[in-house]
Specification:
Distance between the termini: 68 Å
Structural class: alpha/beta
Number of strands: 7
Strand order of the largest sheet: 3-2-1-4-5-6-7
Length: 278
């Protein structure tokens, strides 16, 4: 009986010791490996950015190029378009056109990421909402996003690419402000489209998320929010005491596109300095 206990005790001890060594070995291996650098991830990756000629789209494109990516820069028309940069290809497309948009996006071929940034804002109070304002806003901000993503995701699946799609939404997708009926509606739609895409495309290894900024100080943003009477009520609700810069949004988009967010799917990354927290 005494020998039996000793044998089992020795067996248990050795088993525990071997298991401990394995855990330590795996832990050391993980610690030594470290996360991949952003520069390594984006090098030679192909990314589509819509609405890339100004504001947030221009900054996102600039940052992706700095990280070594090749960017398909989608702009509405040749007139007034920025000069094509190295490692970019301009795609001229009116994204409100259903069939033409799908064909042009599909013809690009497989890419590793998509940023649905193209958007419009028709500012109309509720009682002054027009058919044109409604159709234009919903067509560009929501419908086009679906059509573009259909083509891009189809190419990703056919090529076996587990890519990332980032949709640009807004904080006023969830907290409304006056005079923005159609814009709030369109960005609320973006949130739900993003979640639906995450569920359906996630099965194919494609992640879909949204980035939801507060007011962003693009060139047009500075003009639109220059009136203190309009901007102060929003500013007072932001604990950090400022509106977002284009770099703030680009940082969030880069994170969502990269392998640093491989388990993030179907979420809204709010970039608002705390606006929605209160």
């Amino acid at each position: 009986m005494i020998c039996y206990i000793r044998k089992n005790s020795i067996h248990a001890f050795l088993k525990h010791k071997i298991a401990g060594q394995m855990v330590r070995s795996i832990t050391r291996s993980i610690a030594c490996k470290g996360p991949q650098k952003m520069e390594d991830y984006f090098k030679d990756k192909k990314i589509i950015v819509t609405g890339s000629c100004a504001g947030m789209g221009e900054k996102i494109t600039e940052r992706l190029l700095d990280l070594g990516a090749f960017v398909y820069a989608v702009v509405e028309k040749k007139d007034g378009a920025a000069k094509e940069l190295p490692n970019t290809k301009q795609i001229f497309c009116d994204v409100s056109k259903w069939e033409d948009t799908y064909k042009k996006m599909y013809d690009i071929g497989p890419v590793h990421g998509l940023v649905n940034n193209a958007g419009v804002a028709v500012i109309e109070p509720f009682f002054e909402v027009t058919e044109n304002g409604w159709d234009k806003t919903l067509n560009v901000n929501a419908r086009a996003l679906v059509r573009i993503s259909q083509a891009v995701a189809k190419n990703m699946i056919n090529a076996g690419i587990k890519g990332s799609i980032v949709n640009i939404s807004s904080t006023i997708s969830t907290r409304a402000i006056p005079d923005h009926t159609t814009y709030c509606a369109s960005k609320g739609a973006v949130n739900q489209i993003t979640r639906t895409m995450a569920i359906e495309l996630g099965k194919c290894g494609i992640r879909t998320n949204s980035v939801n900024p507060t007011v962003v100080l693009t060139r047009m943003g500075k003009i639109a929010w220059s009136d203190p009477e309009k901007s102060e009520p929003i500013m007072r609700r932001i604990p950090l005491g400022r509106f977002a810069e284009t770099d703030d949004i680009a940082n969030a988009v880069i994170f969502m596109l990269s392998d640093y967010s491989t388990m993030v799917n179907g979420t809204s990354l709010v970039v608002d300095g705390g606006f929605l927290a209160g």
